[in-house]
Write a structure and sequence with these properties.
Radius of gyration: 19 Å
Mean pLDDT: 87
Strand content: under 5%
Number of strands: 0
Number of helices: 8
Structural class: mainly alpha
Low-confidence stretches: none
Distance between the termini: 48 Å
Number of domains: 2
Order of helices and strands: HHHHHHHH
Shape: globular
């Protein structure tokens, strides 16, 4: 029962901080599950995130379901998944009636702009954390930089899967 409470609290915190989408949840999950609770190792979390990104649905929900199952079976999955979506449901239920009224409020807009910068910092931290793990030499850095450059140059016109597959082919050829 104590584990269920801990799962609920951990994923409730992740759900509360998930403003900005899936990438933002990565450092939140890392902080809560790897650094804070030590329920997962860094490599294990990377595997969970890879699985969560390959399956349909939000990263946080998939990671919650998998982690909950790993720690407490099906009941743990249910608790962790419910906990990670509950903050969004509550916030939307409470805020939606007031959105139009506060849309033009300068303080609300300034607060939202500040939050966006915080979200950006979490995304950059996720890139840094996993970049350090993925880039083990200068050739890795060259491949990653080339793929990033192509994505930026083509500005969304190049499908991201092409960059991923091209990097895989370069990995086979080079390594």
């Amino acid at each position: 029962m104590l584990m269920m409470i801990k799962l609920f609290m951990s994923f409730m915190l992740i759900g509360l901080g998930a403003y900005g989408g899936g990438l933002v949840t990565i450092p939140l999950i890392q902080h809560e599950l790897v650094s804070g609770r030590h329920w997962l190792g860094f490599d294990e979390m990377a595997q969970i995130l890879a699985i969560a990104q390959m399956t349909p649905g939000p990263i946080a929900v998939n990671a919650a379901t998998f982690t909950g199952f790993r720690l407490s079976g099906i009941p743990g999955s249910a608790v962790a998944t419910a906990a990670v979506v509950l903050p969004s449901i509550l916030i939307l239920t409470l805020i939606v009636p007031w959105v139009e009224k506060f849309r033009s409020n300068g303080y609300v807009n300034k607060f939202r702009n500040g939050i966006q910068l915080g979200v950006l910092s979490l995304i950059l931290f996720a890139v840094w954390s996993y970049g350090v793990a993925a880039v083990r030499g200068w050739m890795d850095l060259v491949i990653a930089a080339a793929a990033f450059s192509f994505l930026v140059v083509f500005d969304g016109k190049l499908h991201p899967i092409i960059a991923i597959l091209a990097c895989g082919v370069m990995g086979v050829v080079i390594f």
